[in-house]
Amino acid sequence: MRRKIIAGNWKMNMLPNEAIKFIDEIAPLVKDTKNEVVLCVPYIDLFYSLLTAQNTNIKIGAQNMHQEEKGAYTGEVSAEMLKSIGVEYVIIGHSERRQYYNETDKSVNEKIKSALKNELKPIVCVGETLEQKEEGKTEEIITKQVELALEGLEKEQVEKVIVAYEPIWAIGTGKTATKEDANSNIKCIRNKIADIYGQNTADKVIILYGGSVKASNSKELFEMSDIDGALVGGASLKVEEFSKIVNYQ
Ligand code: 13P
To answer: What are the structural domains of the chain?
Structure first.
């Protein structure tokens, strides 16, 4: 059985004092869950969040990293740097980074390799645009993104990768994919992984859904066969809402 992961992506929100307050408030509300609770916070909040989340079941992640180990990359942060302060997870290839910061399938692949080398758990985002969906290209787009993201990895490494299927048209729009569509697209990703790495590996890969997940739609999504949790944007900024998503059972 794959465990469920409920991960928040705060994007460019929350000052350190707000992060501390949020974690202090949510920790007692989610302490009894069997699900993995992750908060992916801005770099500036990482250290405060890690300290505040000590002795809780909340794990802390970053929202991006650079693929190189070190060097002349002004403004960037490496996997080793994240690992050194106790970060466990890192989002890689979010559509906002692909769209606004020229993140490519190649850089996504390099970042995943560097994250795994440094024992970070990568949450790798894939998803189609509205135009691609309307042209009936969803499956082709998302399976290609997954194939290129995982290129050159060993089976044992693929098993450690978390995939987040986030249709771009569903992000921040209030439009959620239907539970059937989300499940069938996630299945399609799993089948692609099975084609390349074998069914056994594919069955172990945790695949999340993201895009306007909220307390009112999370339960029905999480009950689907192939949806192993969620990557939550806006609703992860509210203590009560996010705790309800975590405690959906
Ligand atoms: P929303 O939940 O705000 O739609 O954002 C989804 C997302 O981009 C998570 O990474």
So the answer is: 5-246 (3.20.20.70)
**What gap in Å lies between CA 33 and CA 202, rounded to an integer?**
25
Crossing angle (nearest 10°) for helices 179-197 and 215-222? 40
User: How many Å lie between the centroid of ligand 1 and the Cα of residue 217?
Assistant: 14
pLDDT band at 1 (very low <50, low <70, confident <90, very high): confident
Closest ligand 1 atom number to CA of residue 164: 10
Mind listing the pLDDT tens digit for each residue in 48-58? 999 999 999 99
Q: Which residues contact 220 (CB under 8 A, 6 or more apart)?
A: 179
Separation of CA 216 from chain center = 20
CA of 72 to the centre of ligand 1 (A): 32
Half-sphere exposure of 182 (CA within 13 A, CB side): 33
The first and second tokens of residue 123, run together, are: 């949450």
Out of 66, 94, 96, 128, which one is annotated catalytic? Answer: 94
Per residue in 154-167, pLDDT (tens digit) is 999 999 999 999 99
What does the alpha-carbon distance between residue 227 and residue 222 come to, in Å, rounded to a whole number? 6
- Adjacent-strand bridge partners of 227: none
Q: What is the CA radius of gyration of the chain?
A: 17
Pocket test for ligand 1, best of 13, 176, 212, 218 (most atoms within 8 A of CB): 212
Reduced to 3 states, what is the DSSP secondary structure of residue 47?
helix
